[in-house]
Amino acid sequence: MFTKIRQKTILAFFFTVSLNHTNAMDSMTDKELSEETGQALFSIQNIAPDSNGNPNQNIGFYRLAMQVEMESNLNIKSLQLGCGGVKGAGCDIDLSNVSLTGANPIDNNFASTDAKIKNPFFEFAIKHPNSAALREIVGLRFGAESVLGLLSLGSNPDSENILDDTGIGTITGDLNISVTDSKLSNGCVRLLVCLPFTGTLAPYNTSISVNRAKTIDLTGLQATTTSVVGFPIGLTLNNINVLNQPLSTVHRLLLAKDKDGNIPTSDFYLSLQSMPITWQKLSSQSFDNPQAQSGWWISLPNLQISNLDIKQQVEVAASDVIGGILFNQPIYINPLDLGQKPAQNCYGSLKFC
Predict the structure, then answer these.
(1) Cβ-proximal residues to 31 (8 Å cutoff; 6+ apart), any chain
(2) pLDDT tens-place string over residues 171-219
């Protein structure tokens, strides 16, 4: 009984103190209030139809953002969005063993790192926003003013075997792909015998939109030879193509502007829409994003493929080599293991936790 009475007495005391503090607050005039400064936790932005270059017909946007900086490290065993429905069997996005971490490891491990998310937001796309009778929500987007981190996917036990890769089952969205610091190590100019050569791939960038894709095509890659037996160096191969490259071989999606993971990106987002919608691109404040199609959609600003060593034999005929240039003669390379390993985001020997 004494314990219960004491608890009630303590609660009454704090309640009284709270009331006293409330009563002690001073009233302020509008002028005094206007001279104070502060920051709101939430901010709201509206883009009306036909304003700010909005190309969507009679669609307005309403964005609610939190003025915070978040740090996150997480693991998701399976992420499936937009499965079945009007599109039929399959999923818009089907990912396994997903990890969100910092962009760079600490002692070769990502478990102690965090992705940095500044001012996260969600945004509604409203059709007929000025009509109470006709207005409807046709899209929802999740994003942030800036994100810096690494999205790691799947598994790759053997980096020489393309058949054991897991991670991206299917994906729907726009992918900005770059290939850097890569090389050919098994080239051959065919004369009477094979004259071996090596080469360096030129930096390659492309943007594609895909719908429930399992593979992508990398077309028009270029390389310059660094050594050719019997020919001068500097031979240009300007039409290298990798067709039907499995997306399951991609295990690291860098959420950054630069390849070293030091500069945050503003253009990573996840959205759901009932009709095709062009969302605003935050980095440019313009509507130059690829049009997101119906269903779930992800925008990946930096699908980075680096330090790729193409060991398949790339053979060209000596008769095709004229003046140091291989005249648009297409060269096809079979799909290959990109050699990427997912980030180690567990302590100890666990592969995924």
Answers:
(1) none
(2) 999 999 999 999 988 888 777 778 788 889 999 999 999 999 999 999 9
What residue type is 250 in one-letter code? V
- Please tell me the distance from the alpha carbon of residue 65 to that of residue 142, in angstroms, as a whole number: 10
CB 216 within 8 A of CB 306: no
Tokens for 158, please give them.
Answer: 């053997």
User: Cβ neighbours of residue 287 under 8 Å, at least 6 residues apart?
Assistant: 52, 53, 54, 55, 56, 278, 279, 280, 281
Residue the block writes with tokens 């690829």: 290
Rounded to whole angstroms, how far apart are CA atoms 98 and 92? Answer: 16
In terms of Cβ atoms closer than 10 Å to its own Cβ (0-12, 13-18, 19+), residue 324 is middle
pLDDT band at 90 (very low <50, low <70, confident <90, very high): very high
pTM (predicted TM-score): 0.84
**DSSP category for residue 13:** H
**Tens-place pLDDT, residues 284-342:** 899 988 999 999 999 998 888 888 888 888 887 776 665 555 556 788 999 999 989 99
Domain boundaries, the chain: 70-114+152-333
The chain-wide mean pLDDT, for the chain, equals 86
Which residues neighbour 46 within 8 Å (Cβ) at sequence distance 6 or greater?
60, 61, 62, 63
Q: What single letter denotes the amino acid at residue 288?
A: D
Q: Which helix (H) or strand (E) holds 254?
A: strand 252-255
Classified as helix, coil or strand, 113 is coil
